[in-house]
Amino acid sequence: MHSLPSLNALRAFDAVARTLSMSAAAKQLHVTHGAISRQVKLLEEQLDCRLVERAGRGVALTDAGLRLARTTQEVFDKLEQACDQVKRSAANAPFVLGCSGSFLARWFIPRLEQLKQDCPELELHLTAVDESQAIRPGVDAVLRFAEPPWPEDQRVIELAPERIGPVMRPDLFREEAPAPDQLLQHPLLETLSRPQAWPQWCRAQGIDPSQLRIKQSFEHLNYMLEGALVGLGVAIAPEYLVEEDLRTGRLQAPWGFVETPSRLGLWLPGQDISPAAQLLADWLRAALSR
To answer: Can you give the residue ranges of the HTH lysR-type domain (predicted)?
Structure first.
């Protein structure tokens, strides 16, 4: 059996690799600068190679240090998540679900009361997260639109395909069945988080994406949809997020929606599926298909 270097030394090195500073690493681990330096030196002796070198007022990683840092960061992050999950499970803590602010506001919150009625045993806490970021400690799962293949270190429960389409105010276009290319006559709105949405829709409709002329880009999908609601132009949006606006007539979708390669999934930080995660996934899958 191969012996590992000192765990304390690996933890000290990981902190140095993340901060590129002995002092910052010492502060992060609540030890002295000298203790960090000794642990890193011990690790270098155990591995028989240099891992860090001085660089101005801080340190830089050698090639060997960079290789080791990629692994220590992944391992310590997973260990932190696992410990947090065990602790939260033992304390009967609520299941924390993260999703984008737009999905939270436009889809989940209007259905929250129904979820409580259908799954009274599920104690759920919702939090807004950036879909592009890793699952942070304290979050049990994240709802995310993404394209497979899925990462090997996370479990992804597929819930539903993504469908996108152009939406606009009813008074912006009055024809009952306009041809798709007539869309190009109108100002187009997009969100910076999904620049591929318009080209995907155009290709599905046989329209050359190079003909697109985007009038305005928005940082968040919610802002783009508000722009559509006040008549700034035609927005491209996932069907799930405009269901209520279409039902009430605030928006219309004369060209319908097309399926994209993306899937809405429930992302879990590890491979295990807890009973709460499975219960939530089953409810979400049913709610999304209604």
So the answer is: 5-62
Structure tokens at 115: 């979820």
Q: Taking the CB of residue 290, how many other CB atoms lie within 10 A of it?
A: 7
Residues making up the chain, counted from first to last: 290
pLDDT digits (tens, 9 = 90+) for 6-60: 889 999 999 999 999 999 999 999 999 999 999 999 999 999 999 999 888 889 9
Inter-residue contact 228 to 109 (CB < 8 Å): no
Q: Where are the domains of the chain?
A: 7-90, 94-290
Residue for token pair 């807890």: 274
Query: How far apart (Å, rounded) are the C-alpha atoms in residues 206 and 181?
Result: 9
CB 13 within 8 A of CB 62: no
User: For the structural domain made of 7-90, what CATH number should be given?
Assistant: 1.10.10.10
Residue 225, sorted as left (phi over 0), alpha (psi -120 to 50) or beta, turns out to be alpha
Q: What angle do CA 43, 71, 8 make, to 5 degrees?
A: 35
How does DSSP classify residue 186? Answer: S
Q: How far is CA 56 from the centre of its chain?
A: 36
Tell whether domain 94-290 is in CATH 3.40.190.290. Answer: yes
Could you report the per-residue pLDDT of 154-179, keeping only the tens digit for each? 899 999 999 999 999 998 776 666 78
| Tokens matching residue 273 | 């599926």
Distance CA 160, CA 74 (A): 29
Other C-beta atoms lying within 10 Å of the C-beta of residue 264: 23
